[in-house]
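Run log, item B.
One chain of 194 residues. Sequence copied directly from the ordering sheet:
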Amino acid sequence: MNIQFDEKAMEFDGVREQIVTNHEFLKRFYLDMQKRLNDKYDKILDERARWEKEKAEIMALVNMDSEVIALNVGGTAHLMTERDVLRHVPGSTLEKMFNGMHELKKIDGEVFLDRDGKTFQYLVNYLRNKRQVFPEFIDYNDEKHFFKELDFWKIPVKEQMKKPRPPSQNSSAKKSPGPLMNTDRGMSLPTPQP
């Protein structure tokens, strides 16, 4: 019986050692697995933080809350912009017109503005750039019309922006022959008058 007991004790010690070995292995495996999971979790958190930052940058560029307005300006310029662009200058006539409290004339779903299309496009781009980028004009008349458009909509020019330059006395600026005429043969220049 003593021999059986010793055998059983040795068998028990062997099982015990195996359990301790297995426990140590599982403990190391668990700690290693936990470290790898923590590393992956940290990477996911870093990636999410980068994504959130990128998302915020994109959201700053794209105002999801601002309604998109389709415009027909003078029948010549069809453009789309955000309502907030048109309301960028508080107190301006443009801001008042597009504050959502007034019924606006629409043609084929576009708000119609009886203004010069080319000049108004300069104005919209100026407003899109928060009045920080002033348009460059080759033609003095385009620049003059732009300032008149700013005045019409009561949009003040930022102090660092330039005023219209007078036409150069020495320049050989080409005079426009006049507007294009719509004929049954297409567009043509008007016939010069003597």
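Observations after the first pass:
- DSSP finds five helices and six strands in the chain.
- The radius of gyration is 37 Å.
Flagged for discussion on Thursday.
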